[in-house]
């Protein structure tokens, strides 16, 4: 399947952000501060509960992260949209990891439930992305996945039907 490793440290993720991992014009992570993970601990094209692929990643929470100072002054909370973006980032990363070509972009999400918050006293987020569909045809390259985010072991975000595509244009 993939010639890439099944785990990645922060330096390897930064290589992806610079376009050096999957090559020019292909899946690329954002650079900090929008890079929403510090490491990928597991990735596959055939794992997860549906056998269609999965990703597990971690993000270290530090009290001085950029969003705590502005969201909200006196009541710091990580914006929920950043957790969703982290899940989208990992979904697109998996498509590039499979060797599929094109730049990634989010197409949408079917359902989002936020049941907890990330405050500066949290230590780590763990992202879980479980593919329900991964399609590559002549005209379409797309992944559909469910995901969840845990903060220190407590599930705080749950999403269904995230869609990410790769496009060569």
UniProtKB/TrEMBL annotation:
Keywords on record: Cytoplasm, Fatty acid biosynthesis, Fatty acid metabolism, Isomerase, Lipid biosynthesis, Lipid metabolism, Lyase
Keyword field contains Lipid metabolism: yes
Catalytic reactions on record: a (3R)-hydroxyacyl-[ACP] = a (2E)-enoyl-[ACP] + H2O
Name of the protein described by the UniProt record: 3-hydroxyacyl-[acyl-carrier-protein] dehydratase FabA
One cellular component (GO) term of this entry: cytoplasm
Subunit structure: Homodimer.
Main subcellular location: cytoplasm
Presence of the UniProt keyword Lipid biosynthesis in the record: yes
BP-aspect Gene Ontology terms: fatty acid biosynthetic process
Location in or out of the cell: Cytoplasm
GO MF term (any one): isomerase activity
EC assignment: 4.2.1.59
Pathway assignment: Lipid metabolism; fatty acid biosynthesis
The organism's place on the tree of life at top rank: Bacteria
Family: Belongs to the thioester dehydratase family. FabA subfamily.
